[in-house]
């Protein structure tokens, strides 16, 4: 039993956690191995993170798995990542079903190789009756892509006369993002000591709490996730208000 788990208040969990899984390449290089070895080893970290979030009762977990910029990596690495997705959906199916997980994707999945698209489709279908956590894989995803697509949709609807351009508001844009069915992430974790969003949830992260872990992703385990949640629960989320106002609201 983890020492950290009992410190988590399960009544105050983040509804949606986003994870920027980073450091696979550096971890492998540090072991004198090729970068793809790091990607393969990362499957265990994915499993630990998915299981711990599902067990805690987190509603939504988004894993940033492949950005629109990641196409610029060597072809061999991109190919290995795409194949790894196919293999991992197969190898983790039982874990997802056992945990009541429903698989979903965000991103321009039409741009993924056919075998990857088919494996994702199968995974989504096979887990569709899951009544627990929604696991969202961000694939060929970027925040700018998401916002640009939403704006394009708004433009089309305005042109078709279904929407009035003069009254467009934040909700109109939010509801056209790929995440329209999910709450905004309250906690965003990035591993490997890097402090940037790398084009992840640009719009959705407006009020997210950030947690940066020095751990390289292939070494990330349940206790690292628990530590992030505990840190999140110790923060005061003010949403523009003052600390005094928040205290008055809880002790009127
Ligand atoms: C994260 O690890 C995996 C993906 C971005 C697909 P990296 O492959 O970015 O590892 P580093 O950052 O090079 O160490
Ligand atoms: C961010 O990691 C993308 C994913 C985790 C999928 P990168 O390793 O690609 O980010 P940069 O290029 O270092 O910012
Ligand atoms: Mg990286």
Automatic annotation (TrEMBL):
Transmembrane segments: none
Swiss-Prot/TrEMBL keywords: Magnesium, Metal-binding, Transferase
Family listed: Belongs to the UPP synthase family.
InterPro entries in the record: UPP_synth-like (IPR001441), UPP_synth-like_CS (IPR018520), UPP_synth-like_sf (IPR036424)
Entry keyword Magnesium: yes
Cofactor list: Mg(2+)
Record text on cofactor binding: Binds 2 magnesium ions per subunit.
Active-site residue numbers: 22, 70 (proton acceptor)
Pfam families in UniProt: Prenyltransf (PF01255)
Protein known as: Isoprenyl transferase
Functional summary from the UniProt entry: Catalyzes the condensation of isopentenyl diphosphate (IPP) with allylic pyrophosphates generating different type of terpenoids.
UniProt cross-references to PANTHER family, sorted A to Z: DEHYDRODOLICHYL DIPHOSPHATE SYNTHASE 2 (PTHR10291:SF0), DEHYDRODOLICHYL DIPHOSPHATE SYNTHASE FAMILY MEMBER (PTHR10291)
Entry superkingdom: Bacteria
EC number: 2.5.1.-
SUPFAM superfamilies in alphabetical order: Undecaprenyl diphosphate synthase (SSF64005)
Keyword Metal-binding among UniProt keywords: yes
GO molecular function terms attached to this record: transferase activity
Record-listed substrate binding positions: 23-27, 35, 39, 67-69, 71, 73, 190, 196-198
Subunit text: Homodimer.
Gene name as annotated: uppS
Residues binding Mg(2+): 22, 209
